[in-house]
């Protein structure tokens, strides 16, 4: 790992759930940080603060080229967290996802090129993989097709081998895996990566994409169509309701603590000393199931046990858990918050209204 000195940074989306933890960690690492954030209503129900941990917040949209150009003045590197996240509500969300995530990234990258800012850390997501890694006893490593509506409606949640239909064994997905986004949000995240890679190649710049797995922790948005499942379960339990676990609860995810994600960004910034594009999983390396997460939260909060509903969402993938190895080898990043400790803190931590 190459270590670089103090850097003047712009953190887009730096007032959001993950962005504010990233801002705090970058400040603690000694960097100078300015924040650009639009206060998007999908993530913010309250007016933006004027500072995040002392870093000044400029309220502007990443699609606003004039505001972005002004915010890049004197900046050495950009940490791009601004995005619309989650599964959304329906396809009416499509233009806003593409606008915020892809047009926003395009405006940012072109402004960076004009300003000669050649270092980017990009918040990407494990959703770029679609389904995670699977193996069939007979056919080895395989990539199952998206699950059909008929399979899901019949409660057949596990994808089968595309060649023989046999049950598959889920494994750890690494950064060489095929990229196959299966939701609008996932498609916009992959487009961001492609744009960043092209930008890095054409300008001789450096871009590091961090493929976050399921981030949880203090400040998570409470309970919106754009919230992650840990916050949805916690909000239900806080209201005395059982968490509603979709499918059969056996879907595997890697829940990674937001402070670990922030630490990964600090490490990734150092890696932008090397030109080119490189992507990394940001994961704990300790997968669990959604059902187990619901039970752990219910136990920690003394609430009713989860209800497994059999509901399903179009575009959801079954299992996606990561190998954290490349980030460990090349960035020196290892998640440090054990899930039990993270949950014990999370059940009492303030959430975002
Ligand atoms: C999540 C994030 C996404 C991020 C990705 C990787 C959200 C909404 N999604 O995707 O932005 O890029 O991790 O970091 O933050 N579920 C239930 N009950 C519910 C809601 C969901 O059982 O009430 C299940 C879903 O069916 C799914 C699992 O929980 O199987 C996870 O869902 P979710 O938290 O939305 O996350 P991902 O789709 O994995």
From TrEMBL:
Pathway(s) per entry: Carbohydrate metabolism; galactose metabolism
Database matches in Pfam families: Epimerase
Annotated ranges, domain NAD-dependent epimerase/dehydratase: 10-134, 176-283
Similarity comment: Belongs to the NAD(P)-dependent epimerase/dehydratase family.
Protein name: UDP-glucose 4-epimerase
Organism encoding this protein: Asanoa hainanensis
């Amino acid at each position: 790992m190459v270590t670089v000195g103090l850097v003047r940074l712009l953190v887009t989306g730096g007032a959001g759930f993950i962005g504010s933890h990233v801002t705090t960690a970058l400040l603690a690492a000694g960097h100078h940080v300015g924040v650009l954030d639009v206060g998007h209503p999908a993530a913010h129900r309250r007016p933006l603060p004027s500072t995040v941990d002392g870093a000044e917040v400029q309220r502007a949209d990443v699609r606003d080229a004039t505001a972005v150009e002004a915010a890049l003045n004197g900046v050495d590197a950009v940490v791009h967290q601004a995005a619309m996240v989650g599964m959304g509500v329906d396809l009416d969300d499509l233009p806003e996802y593409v606008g915020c995530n892809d047009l926003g990234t395009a405006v940012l990258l072109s402004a960076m090129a004009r300003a000669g800012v050649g270092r980017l850390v990009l918040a990407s997501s494990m959703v770029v993989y679609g389904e995670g890694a699977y193996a069939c006893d007979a056919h080895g490593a395989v990539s199952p097709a998206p699950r059909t509506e008929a399979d899901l409606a019949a409660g057949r949640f596990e994808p089968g081998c595309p060649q023989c239909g046999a049950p598959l064994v889920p494994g750890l997905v690494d950064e060489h895996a095929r990229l196959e986004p299966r939701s609008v949000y996932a498609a916009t995240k992959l487009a961001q990566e492609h744009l960043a890679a092209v930008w890095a190649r054409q300008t001789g710049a450096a871009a590091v994409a961090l493929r976050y797995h399921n981030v949880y922790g203090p400040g998570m948005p409470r309970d919106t169509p754009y919230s992650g499942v840990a916050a949805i379960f916690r909000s239900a339990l806080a209201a005395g309701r059982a968490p509603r676990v979709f499918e059969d609860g056996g879907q595997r995810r890697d829940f990674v603590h937001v402070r670990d994600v922030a630490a990964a960004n600090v490490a990734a910034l150092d890696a932008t000393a090397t030109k080119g594009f490189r992507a990394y999983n940001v994961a704990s390396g300790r997968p669990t199931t959604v059902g187990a997460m619901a039970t752990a939260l219910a136990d920690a909060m003394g609430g009713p046990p989860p209800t497994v509903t059999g509901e399903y969402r179009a575009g959801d993938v079954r299992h996606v858990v990561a190998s954290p190895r490349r980030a460990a080898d090349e960035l020196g990043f290892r998640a440090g918050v054990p899930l039990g400790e993270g949950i014990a803190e999370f059940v009492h931590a303030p959430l975002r209204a």
